[in-house]
Design goal:
Blueprint: H1 2-20, E1 44-46, E2 51-52, E3 56-61, H2 67-80, E4 83-84, E5 87-88, E6 94-98, H3 103-114, E7 122-126, H4 139-148, E8 151-155, H5 168-183, E9 187-192, H6 206-210, E10 214-221, E11 226-234, E12 240-247, E13 252-257, H7 259-277, H8 283-290, H9 294-304, E14 309-313, E15 319-323
Parallel strand pairs: 3-9, 3-10, 6-7, 6-8, 8-9
Antiparallel strand pairs: 1-2, 4-5, 10-11, 11-12, 12-13, 14-15
Length: 336
């Protein structure tokens, strides 16, 4: 255990050095005022379940309940910028670290879900490769996250590290490494298993769940083939419950019930219509024309950025909203 702690501390030191680099902060007064700093808004990759860039998501479910199959379907949708669970995903590169499944299973599933066409944005790195998938602490994985800013899916989490999952110090090291991956621009998703006791939200130390921004529970009713996804931790928004009908034979997943998503899509459609009618409109004008509450509009505008509309910087630090279709001259820190 002493040797493991020493290795863990060396990893922490290396991460701190890599993240800090040269710094101009030497005194208290050198620390920037957070209220005067410009930060990009939350950038949702998978809006239906709230997966966003620069975050860690904990996806917990029992073996045999189809979480890997559903995660693979999500990976395909994100790589192509298509709809997943009735909401459009942002198209970004996807790196799926498959640490358990044999290659023929993955290949057969992908063919049923995505066809034979090659997907350069989607990469599965499995144990069938001569070079094994990276583990916690890998400098290569950190470099890939910095270079491509992918949706990074780790399946299953228990094979991504050699630490004792019940030891809080050891797991804090692993989770700090994943936070470094997220800080590089990745949206990190870890597939995990519950403990044996009833009502478990994930086995192992509370350091695992505590370090995550989003956590949800995955369960399957094998008679009805209905999957339930229950979001019970979300630093960027409220909880939600989604029911999905699974067709494992065809690799198809259809949302059957989610008041949250139904309401969200109706609200998004209203805002899309306002923006389409007046391209380059400001948030205040959108509030007036939509008749919706200002706080609600502000949150929806952030959530729908990139997947529903695009933005550009306007005069006096304002943000202008445009439909996704058509060209827009972008300036400042805003982008499509």
């Amino acid at each position: 255990m002493g040797e493991l702690r020493e290795q863990a501390q060396r990893l922490l030191d290396s991460l701190d050095t890599a993240s800090i680099g040269e710094t101009s902060i030497r005194h208290f007064s050198d620390i920037p005022d957070v209220l005067r700093m410009d930060f990009p808004p939350v950038e949702y990759i998978v809006p239906a379940i709230g997966i966003a860039r620069n975050t860690i998501t904990l996806w917990t479910g029992k073996d045999g309940d189809g979480k890997t199959f559903l995660a693979q379907a999500m990976a395909c949708a994100v790589a192509r910028g298509e709809t997943f669970l009735d909401m459009k995903c942002q198209s970004v590169p996807v790196l799926y670290l498959d640490l358990e499944n044999p290659p023929y299973v993955v290949q057969d599933r992908l063919r049923s879900m995505a066809g034979e066409e090659a997907r350069p944005e989607l990469r599965f790195w499995g144990t069938w490769h001569k070079q094994q998938p990276p583990q916690s602490g890998s400098t290569l994985l950190l470099a890939i996250c910095k270079e491509t800013r992918p949706l990074l899916i780790i399946d299953p989490f228990r094979y991504f590290h050699d630490a004792d999952e019940n030891e809080s110090t050891a797991m804090a090291i692993v989770m700090k490494y994943l936070r470094a991956c997220a800080s590089c621009g990745a949206a990190v998703v870890i597939l995990h298993h519950p403990a044996k006791q009833e009502g478990s939200t994930g086995r192992g130390s509370s350091a695992i769940r505590g370090a995550c921004d989003l956590a949800f529970l995955h369960s399957l009713d094998k008679e009805s083939q209905l999957i339930t996804l229950k979001v019970d931790k979300n630093r960027n928004g409220e909880g939600r419950t989604i029911t999905v009908r699974a067709d494992f034979e065809q690799g198809r997943f259809q949302m059957t019930e989610s008041p949250y998503i139904t309401t969200r899509n109706e609200e998004f459609a209203k805002l899309e219509a306002v923006i389409a009618e007046t391209p380059g409109i400001t948030q205040n004008s959108i509030v007036k024309q939509s008749g919706m509450m200002k706080a609600r509009v502000g949150r929806l505008l952030k959530e729908g950025r990139v997947t529903r509309w695009q933005t550009a910087s306007g005069p006096n630090r304002s943000i202008l909203y445009y439909p996704l279709s058509g060209s827009v001259v972008l300036s400042g820190s805003e982008n499509q």
